[in-house]
């Protein structure tokens, strides 16, 4: 039984090695059945540069490049059209089961543009469809762009069927 197990494991290792070499993974090595690559971190690179005598430039930290927006009051180097996160206009999307409303306001809450599925010409049951929300999102983006808005923060409320469609179409309308 152990002979069969050792043959199976060697067969799996050979198959993995064959797959890795066919994918041109030159630096990868196979240990058991898992693939391991050499780690190249910035500290390793800095040590190599110091050994070679090249000047070591400190890299910016990952804190400067967060995918999350900054906390209120926190200073951030990120800018959208020259504005900080707190200064960006806000697109409020309220997706109910019967309608989808989109209000675009400036950072202090002053009205910039407003539209809804009913205002776009959809009536009764058709107001609650994702298609109506798409039309509303494109219309809200066009109205906001006409007033000079280029970037927005999005606040979504409700669980209606037009929730995701409205967000997608706001971005399609270049907001």
Structure commentary:
This protein is α+β, with helices and mostly antiparallel strands. 34% of the residues lie in helices and 17% in strands. It contains four helices and six strands, in the order H-E-E-H-E-E-E-H-E-H. It has helices at residues 2-22, 42-52, 130-146, 163-172, and strands spanning 29-31, 34-36, 90-95, 100-105, 111-116, 153-157. A four-stranded mixed beta sheet has the order 5-4-3-6, covered by helices on one side. A hairpin with a 5-residue loop joins strand 4 (100-105) and strand 5. Helix 3 (130-146) packs parallel to helix 4. The radius of gyration is 27 Å and the shape is flat. The N and C termini lie far apart (65 Å).
End-to-end Cα distance, whole Å, is 65 Å
Q: Please, what is the average pLDDT?
A: 79
Question: How would you describe the shape?
Answer: flat
Catalogue the unreliable spans: 24-40
Across the major sheet, the strand order is 5-4-3-6
Q: Using the CA coordinates, give the radius of gyration.
A: 27 Å
| Helix content range | 25-40%
Biggest sheet details: 4 strands, mixed
- The count of helical stretches stands at 4
Determine the strand fraction and express it as a percent band. Answer: 15-25%
Structural class: alpha+beta
Order of helices and strands: HEEHEEEHEH
Write down how many β-strands occur, each being a DSSP E stretch of 2 or more residues.
6
Pick out its properties:
alpha+beta; two-stranded antiparallel sheet; 34% helix
């Amino acid at each position: 039984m152990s002979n069969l197990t050792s043959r199976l494991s060697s067969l799996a290792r050979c198959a993995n090695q064959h797959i890795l070499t066919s994918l041109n993974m030159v630096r990868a090595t196979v240990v058991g059945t898992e693939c391991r690559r050499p780690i190249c971190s910035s500290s390793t690179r800095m040590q190599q540069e110091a050994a070679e005598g090249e000047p070591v430039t400190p890299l910016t930290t990952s804190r400067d490049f967060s995918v999350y927006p900054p906390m209120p009051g926190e200073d951030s180097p990120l800018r959208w059209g020259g504005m900080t996160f707190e200064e960006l206009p806000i697109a409020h999307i309220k997706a109910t089961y019967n309608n989808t409303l989109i209000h675009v306001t400036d950072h202090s809450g002053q009205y910039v543009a407003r539209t809804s599925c009913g205002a776009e010409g959809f009536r009764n049951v058709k107001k609650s469809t994702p298609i109506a929300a798409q039309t509303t999102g494109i219309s809200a983006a066009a109205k906001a762009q006409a007033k000079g808005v280029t970037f927005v923060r999005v606040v979504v409320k409700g669980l209606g069927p037009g929730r995701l469609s409205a967000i997608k179409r706001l971005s399609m309308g270049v907001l």
